[in-house]
Amino acid sequence: MISFLHQFWGKEKSLSIVLIVLSIHLFLVIPLGQEIIVGRIIGFVFYFFLLTAGLKYVTGGRKNSVLILIAVLSILMLALRLFFEEAWVDISSDIFIITYCSALAWIVLLKTFSKGPITIYRIEGSIVVYLLIGLIFANLYYFIFHIEGLIAFNGLKAPDIKDFLYFSFTTLTTVGYGDISPALPFSRSAANLEALVGQLYPAILIARLVSMEFINRE
User: Fold this and answer.
1) How confident is the model over 155-212, as pLDDT tens digits?
2) In this structure, are residues 58 and 110 in contact, taking their beta carbons and an 8 Å threshold?
């Protein structure tokens, strides 16, 4: 499986597939099927192999024990979250998910900016990172909620990861409907940071990649 995904990462078309799978996970699985245990386990296994194979690809096959250990621990924490409702499990799994998504975003960025002409697949890779940023901040807000409780956000009644994912992407895109809003200094700072990243990332990085892709096409 790892060998197959290692070859998968070697192709630029893999970025398109990752974009499709990630979009399905964010906009269908989490909002509609987050509580289905079988679906969550399948998702955990898939992302685990995707990340570890990506680590093997970007390190050229050399061992990277620290990052692989992080990947393994993140999967273990996510598995614990399936069967235990303890507060320390929720907090620890939030931290590991943030680390996990950050490592995956790093792999995709390395793939996107590797040597070679800029293609549409690399632009899709930059969009993958944009979506991962939204997922990272969603789990950061979930972490803040687990630490501070309902006082950290206004407008939350029965909070779940899908609520924070919704708030994260409305903040990332600066839509800001106002039905959920940060109420503490730390949660407000995180929301401000995400809004800033949401404005600068597409304007600077994605726009530059698009212009470079047009130049290479010509």
Assistant:
1) 987 778 889 999 999 999 989 888 999 999 999 999 999 999 999 998 888 888 888 7
2) yes
Q: Which domains does the chain have, with CATH numbers?
A: 2-217 (1.10.287.70)
Of 95, 48, 83, 86, nearest to 68 by C-alpha is 48
Q: How far is CA 168 from the centre of its chain?
A: 11
Asked whether the beta carbons of 128 and 19 are under 8 A apart, the reply is yes
* 79 against 180, higher pLDDT: 180
Confidence (pLDDT) at 184: 92
Selection from 32, 46, 43 nearest residue 81 by Cα: 43
Identify which of 158, 149, 152 has the alpha carbon closest to the alpha carbon of residue 181: 152
- DSSP at 152: G
